[in-house]
Amino acid sequence: MQIQIVKSKIHRVKVTGADLNYIGSITIDETLMDAANLIEGEKVYIVNINNGERFETYAIKGAKNSGEITLNGPAARRVQKDDIIIIMSYAIMDFEEAKTFKPWLVFPNEKDNSLT
């Protein structure tokens, strides 16, 4: 049997922008993506702490150490600059493997989205 479990999580990060006219996705600082073991194009789930919105999109790399978290395209309507969100991805794996799997959990500084 296989199950889906959380693989990566960037917990409580601040939205720095929303670009309705972009094709779609979420731009994430490359440093945060690396720390959370996310790759460009990976499907991610977004939970907006401020308004309770939940939606999915895909990740694209932002400039390294920029702190950028920008929602693009239709997702831009679900957030506002300075909202706090959680970014998660999931993996499908064997049930027994999932019992010992440890996800990548990242807790950035909410003021500037840095890892310090």
Automatic annotation (TrEMBL):
The modification Pyruvic acid (Ser) is found at residue 25. It holds the Pfam family Asp_decarbox. GO terms for molecular function: aspartate 1-decarboxylase activity. Keywords: Autocatalytic cleavage, Cytoplasm, Decarboxylase, Lyase, Pantothenate biosynthesis, Pyruvate, Schiff base, Zymogen. Its main location: cytoplasm. SUPFAM superfamilies: ADC-like. Its EC number is 4.1.1.11. It catalyses: L-aspartate + H(+) = beta-alanine + CO2. The active site is at residues 25, 58. It is found in: Cytoplasm. It comes from Flavobacterium solisilvae. This is Aspartate 1-decarboxylase. Pathway: Cofactor biosynthesis; (R)-pantothenate biosynthesis; beta-alanine from L-aspartate: step 1/1. It comes from the Bacteria. Heterooctamer of four alpha and four beta subunits. CDD domains: Asp_decarbox (cd06919). Belongs to the PanD family. Is synthesized initially as an inactive proenzyme, which is activated by self-cleavage at a specific serine bond to produce a beta-subunit with a hydroxyl group at its C-terminus and an alpha-subunit with a pyruvoyl group at its N-terminus. Binds 1 pyruvoyl group covalently per subunit. Catalyzes the pyruvoyl-dependent decarboxylation of aspartate to produce beta-alanine. The lineage of its organism: Bacteria, Pseudomonadati, Bacteroidota, Flavobacteriia, Flavobacteriales. Its cofactor is pyruvate. Substrate binds at residues 57, 73-75.
